[in-house]
Amino acid sequence: MPQRKAPRRSFSMLALILVFFAGIGLVAAVDFGIRYTNTLEFCTSCHTMATPFSEYQETLHYKNPSGVRATCADCHVPKALWPKLVTKVIAAKDVYHELIGTIDTPEKFEARRWEMASRVWAKMERSDSRECRTCHEFSSMDLSEQGRSARSRHAAAEDKGQTCIDCHKGVAHEEPYEPLPELSVE
Predict the structure, then answer these.
(1) pLDDT greater than 70 at residue 6
(2) Containing domain of residue 131, as a range?
(3) Into how many domains does the chain fold?
(4) Is 131 exposed, middle or buried (0-12, 13-18, 19+ CB in 10 A)?
């Protein structure tokens, strides 16, 4: 039987180094992609986002006395890595629907707005409004500085275990109208 040659150690080290640098390159590319797709410019680059963007520009999340601005990603993308990656994969469907024409005009967008908003609200309910709580936490609120109604409602919401989206559905965008059920004509 012929004797097999052992692999050269220098080839194994070179392969290991190449895999290491390819891994670093992949991580850098994913990081760049996530950062780029989290920018306000990217999020508002589709023309059907003109209405949601103009609504957002009228809120305290866009312009306020303190100068702190919450962008699309602050409210729609989790900070933790795995939830962020899941959100990015799911959000790819919005780009897909823009490209295939499902929501590529303001009229088509508005026709599907209730459905899209309902999905976001359900996600926020499941996560206990995780993205809101990055900036707004009951324990950090100075209820004495809030108006009487807000003070009362926030205290009650905390006692009941409610989440932000239970009361604040129209904060950064106008709350869409729920479509009327179809009437059957017999």
Answers:
(1) no
(2) 13-135
(3) 1
(4) buried
